[in-house]
Amino acid sequence: MNLSYTAVREEIRCSIMRQIDFSRDVPDSEVLDLIDSQLTNAEETRIALMTLEEKKRLRQELFHSIRRMDVLQDLLEDPEVTEIMVNGPGNIFVEKAGSLTRYPGKFSSPEKLEDVIQQIAGASNRVVNTSSPIVDCRLENGDRVNVVLHPIAVNGPILTIRRFPQDPITMEDLLRFGSITEEVAEFLGKCVRAGLNIFISGGTGSGKTTFLNVLSDCIDPGERVITIEDNMELQIRHVPNLVQMEARNANVEGCRPISIRELIRASLRMRPDRIVVGEVRGPEAIDMIQAMNTGHDGSMSTGHANSARDMLARLETMILMGMELPVPAIRGQLAAGIDIIIHLGRLRDRSRKLLEVAEVMGIDNGQIKLSTLYRFTETGEENGKIIGVWRKENEIAHRFKFEMAGIDI
Question: How many domains does the chain have?
């Protein structure tokens, strides 16, 4: 996009903005009429020399700039885009099919990018400014948004959008992608139906929330399920008795923040059969583990970790952030509360796979004992794709919940 074209577009946009009466609700059709009038009657030589296709593109870009998300609108309408990363007004990167590429479009100015950011934050009733420069929110369709502004972001406003498919990914999709095998999928489905408490671990972008969504499909529709998230991402559609709660930061009305911890405590008084927490990142870990230890079998959550063993170590640390407890007591709570840890990973070919399923066996010599039930082992590469097998290493030892649910394993 050359400087001349950008300058013309900005001139027309400013002219149209001066003509819009913001004291009333202006419909999209009126904005389009103003754009058409500018393009038709413009004496600007550079516009007169444009082809019909160029004028159509300019018309769409002007409309997106005034009423939508500017240069991001086309990306938000592209179902193949899974992540949008804006590093200042002139640097936009997108992820498609696991591959990261630079997008040729750019914002006309830092101010325009900040306008889009304020539009997104305002729609979620969140505040982001120089005194509160970091915010997490979401778009209307559920896409997750993170914003970092100056002075924290040195190279301009930073906007990251994690996109989610409108139709949730199913276990059949994961099987087709080669992320899991039928045997492991069937076993995990039985674990959910039997009411085992499950923790999903993995690194950033490993698919933890997606996998939690997939496992949620195995929940009995007759149960009462409460979901708790920072930003609503889970799409549980088959459970009628569903309560969805979302944490709240300080907002434009000056309301006090509501934390995940408060929501977990509130959920215990709402007669849940299961509590599903999108992700634990801090002191709320103790409340989640206590919920798992107080009769809410089948509860599930996710957390960042490099392995199933590391997930337990991180949970210990997170619990200590919120409460001073002896480490043996914390490990006793973890061992009693969590039944299964599922570890996911993103491999070097950008594929996401289930890497390990481990059973929590209890305490042995002061340490939490894990037994690996299934593990993914690489066997080679084929056409740039990693291939491997899932090997069953041990049988599950604790079968009480399966027997109580009448499930044969």
Answer: 3
